[in-house]
Amino acid sequence: MISSAEQAILDAVNLDTPWELIERFTTLKREDPEDVKQAAALIAERLAQHGVPVDIHHPELFLSIPRSASVTIGDTTLFAKAMAMSAVFPEGLSAPLVYQPSGYALDADDLFSRQAAVDEMDVRGKIVVSEGFGMPGKVSDLERRGALAVIAINPGKRAHWGVCTTIWGSPDLYDLPRKPGVAVVNVNAEDGQRLIEWARAGGEVTLKTDLNEGWFESPVPVVTIPGTEDTEKFVLLHGHYDSWDYGIGDNAVGDATLLEIARVLWANRDNLRRSVKIAWWPGHSTGRYAGSTWYSDAFGLELDEHCIAQVNCDSPGCRWATEYQDVSLMPETERFAAELIRDVTGKELRAERPHQAGDYSFNNIGLSGYFMLLSTMPDELRAEKDYYAVGGCGGNIAWHTEDDLLEIADRDILLKDIRIYLLAAMRTANSTVIPFDFTLTLDDFRVTVERYQAAAGDHFSFEPLRAEIARLRSAVVQLGAQADSLKDQPLNSASVRAINEAQMCLARQLVRVNFTREAAFFHDPAESIPPLPDLAVAEDLPHASPERIGFYRTHLMRGQNRVMAALREAHTAVERALALPVPG
User: Fold this and answer.
1) Do residues 204 and 96 lie in contact, with contact meaning Cβ atoms separated by under 8 Å?
2) Given phi > 0 = left and psi -120 to 50 = alpha, else beta, which region is 530?
């Protein structure tokens, strides 16, 4: 339930400042580095107009900006869109065309996964045409099989822009070998059908791609609104300000949301107990989250020690987006996030596990996170309009196309979504105890392990892990009871500090084992990651040949050790907090 103090701050929200920025962004394409610099300057200028101080960092990010692309069959040249980070062939690449059926993305899970081929034909030395999107997993799979290039047939009248690398952010020396060595373009459905027919006739195509690739200075504006009790600890609210073309629904509306929240929170900073940082990222579209990744690298230790949560703001306030379904959030945040949406809108949230997408560049640090996309159009309306799945714009298929213009934004929905994000930042910053329930995470672990155990059968036992999950859950229940008795205590009291340190340790340990395979401070590939990923191979055991069973057992033993060590580390922190006396 919204308190009177919260309501007074929510009532301060208006659309004058955010809508003016959206209208200004309708005149500024934000994919070229120079346009991105102009956009950052506009954000900084509007913050200054409202007296909000901003730090602007100037990192160099590795970006790939598509310039042009085409596919020629016979005497006909078809329009195409080069995927960022794909190989460059400005003079043209000619080879036989083969059709590899794969099907369209039916939902977001398909969109962000491999979209595996129906069968694996021989594609060596050929250009492959295939339905769907030129998504990273699909591209890396075809490259592994020897394809020279990939033509992805998008489902609608427009081809979509996108990025095809599995590398998350600017590459390091571990990542660099995964940079695509194939040309990748998207075409629309009509031209895709012509290409399928051409492939079936045994035709050859010439594919041309031109991209501007390299290291570019890219401004990162960050506002810090200090808390009154604990200035070191902070909530990170963030979204990207670069775009494909004008990108109003993805993500001018999000940029405007962050701007208005910065204005309102700065004016009401005396009401914040902890700090709030608000960041706008470049390099999201052309660098696979390069801006947020740079920040997680440059400020990794600060984030590890002091950030209590990250909240992503991408594509709020779009037309027809009246529901809050398939909202990305980590399990521990679900109850908290559902209450936010219920309090502002009266609607119920339908949650989903965050995809390895958006600007979730902080998983390897171990930050609890919630929201990515927020409001979306109802399933019935999407079906009525015959829309296919997309990754933003509230479900509008203008996503990543030239059609993502002012008409995609909706004033009333934007106002509502701004209030959700504002309330999220305030409540996360102001709760005496970090307001996440890790019993939900451990319940999620238990269900996942039960599923993996059913698949593993007699080949491997997860019983030690089940016991460790139950032990930690029992301690977390006690921690929650103790936290309830401290709601009126100051943040600097010893008991409150200890419980919050335990909450942060729970996040650091449980997020890492649930969402990452790579080491802390490095970044996992941009491919779907299953729950407790080190144990997920258990589901392959029923299909494993007898001679491979031992390899699976070895892998699962190591994976179980990693998860159990994390649970024990978290348990130690919880026990330490429980040992402190509770103020009378």
Assistant:
1) yes
2) beta
How far is 243 from 401, CA to CA, in rounded Å?
10
Residue 415's alpha-carbon distances to 37, 388, 398, 419, in angstroms, are 27, 27, 21, 6
Three-state DSSP class for residue 17: helix
Peptide bond into 430 cis (omega under 30): no
Per the CB < 8 A criterion, the answer to whether 532 and 449 are in contact is yes
Helix axes 494-515, 463-484, angle to 10 degrees: 150
Query: Edge-to-edge strand order for the sheet containing 220-225?
Result: 55-57, 220-225, 274-281, 230-240, 307-312, 369-370
User: What is residue 212's predicted lDDT score, i.e. its pLDDT?
Assistant: 97
Q: Decide: 413 and 252 in contact? Cβ < 8 Å.
A: no
Q: What is the pLDDT of residues 375-402, one digit of tens each?
A: 999 999 999 999 999 999 999 999 999 9
Burial tier of 179 (Cβ tally within 10 Å: 0-12, 13-18, 19+)? middle
Mode of pairing for the β-strands spanning 89-99 and 204-217: antiparallel
The CB-side HSE value for 150 (13 A sphere, CA atoms) comes to 38
Given a cut of 50, the residues of the chain with pLDDT beneath it are 113-114
User: From the DSSP assignment, how many helices (H) and strands (E) are in the chain?
Assistant: 16, 16
Q: CA–CA separation, 323 vs 347, rounded Å?
A: 7
Give the whole-angstrom CA distance, residue 333 versus residue 429.
14
Question: Does the pTM of the predicted model rise above 0.90?
Answer: yes
